[in-house]
Predict the structure.
Amino acid sequence: MELVEAIILAVLAASTPLLIAATGELVAERSGVLNLGVEGMMIVGAACGFAGAWLTGSIFIGALFGIVAGTMMSLIFALMALGLAVNQVATGLALTIFGVGLSGLIGARFVGERITPAVHLSIPGLTDIPLAGRVLFGEDAFVYVSVALVVGVWWFLYRTRAGLILRACGDNHVSAHALGYPVLRIRTFAVMFGGACAGLAGAYLPLAYTPFFIPGMTAGRGWIALALVVFSSWRPGRLVVGAYLFGTVTILQLHAQGWGVGIPSQFMSALPYLATIIVLVLLSRARSGGSTAPAALGTVFVPDR
Amino acid sequence: MRKSFLALATGLLLAGSVSATSAADKLKVGFIYLGPIGDLGWTYQHDLARQALVKELGDKIETTYLENVPEGPDAERSIEQLVRAGNKLIFTTSFGYMDPTLKVAKKYPNVHFEHATGYKRNPNMSTYSAKWWQGRYIQGLIAAKMSKSGVLGYIGSFPIPEVVSGINATMLAAQTINPNIKAKIIWANTWFDPGKEADAAKALIDQGADVIMQHTDSPAAMQIASERGKLAFGQDSEMIKFGPKTQLTSILDTWGPYYIERVKAELAGTWKSEDSWGGLDSHMFAMAPYTNMPDEVKKMAEDAQAAITAGKLHPFKCPIIGQDGKPVECKGGDHLDDGQILGMNFYVKGIDDKLPGK
């Protein structure tokens, strides 16, 4: 029983950064912008988040630093890809390369430093419930925020007028523009939200997951988040499934190796990717028909004035 | 550009004047790194050695490094880039650069290459590595003494001989203390991913391991062990900062002396293709102070270290029994020979796990 609980806790910790970053990117892509710079925004968020926490001693301020850093990075993207209508794919890739370098520069000063990681919630009585107690009532704030975030995004996209307008921009920017909506402004806000989430997801790594900063510590999680958005057919519900499934298989394959199941470890390491892709593809085949990608995704929009 | 044109022109016209031209130039030495220089592990130690080199010979040489170079065919471009930039001695510091280095070496016979931890050589390509398994043996002794559960947790990177020989050395040592010792082995299939390394450490501890050993590069596992109140060994560099009450010792890569020696040889024109495989005796690596253990365990570790350094104790002393229960052929007299260790692709008896790919 304790082992099951330990596994669930590890799964939540491993899935949370993916879920946060992917939720942000989902909103950006729903508005029609493909920002491939998630990895770069994440790693800058990690460096700045750690810097903030180390300088002030507060995890909360560290997380704010991460959010602000991610947002600033996304503004560079918005300036190029939306303001100057540069190709989004190229801009996003450049943003990642830039972010990896910049984070090394910012973080160089902090390599080898330690901080006290984010505290875990502790409610006497509730947190001690076997199996479910620590999972539900003993997480750090990031985990709760990630759940609130994805629920909030779902509600925003499908239950508010603003969300409908944002999706309209992503599906047909010309019509949205013709109806009088400020497409570029809406997209800029969506990109900024994506950057803020990526920054927060990045900050989660040195603030809660492994409480130190090392260059390159995101290790490709931004790319996984990007892939999750695509495979979840741009739907928040499936995104949750995908992120937690990926985390679950990642942790389970480590445990399976420890138990000595005897399946080659190379295959085990590939398993999270395989399982997530297969399940999400099956989900999208079983449920909705037709293309699910925002129709205007990745296309440049220059309003005619 | 101007310099190389000059060198080329003088070379064509008057062979004798080439040395005069290049004598005025500093020797360019290049490095290819696997991780970022701030990884606090493998690449960090290589860069410390590069800094030591600059400190020692800075007036005669100029160093360049490329970090975060992925292993595999992609590395070729990076190595070639260093060649084109005029580097005459290039250190490629990871196993996966072996074939790319060889390929570039064959293309540029006038440039010298030094490849870490590989086994392919060329008249202009040396290899160098350290006998870390000597250190792993000492760690195995300590681990068996310090483990209460009798279960060691081992995080591997990739199932290559360097890592496998480390696991075997650890187990052979641990079995001399506790014949029933168990090892749980998790392959991360990466050298560097702090999150995944932390997850692996959590999984091992959750499955009952109380001493964590790693053959991956970040201090994440040490940090998790520290958080959970377990014990652990560092890797490549000093990691005690991440587990002041956790780190037992750490194998420290100390490449500095070797780099200085090879660059001096290059400067003197005596560089030759060689295979250097140094152990504790030749200071290719060192052991971090033995901490967080009782005095008698510390004494045992120090004695073992002294015996290995003096050549009195060989971790792979025969007979060595493989997993199939049969003794392994003993090619080195009373111990396995270097070739057997360099190509080690089997587990010793007592490891109840399957080697991936076997």
User: Anything to note?
Assistant: Chain A has one domain: 2-286. Chain A is about 70% helix and 0% strand.
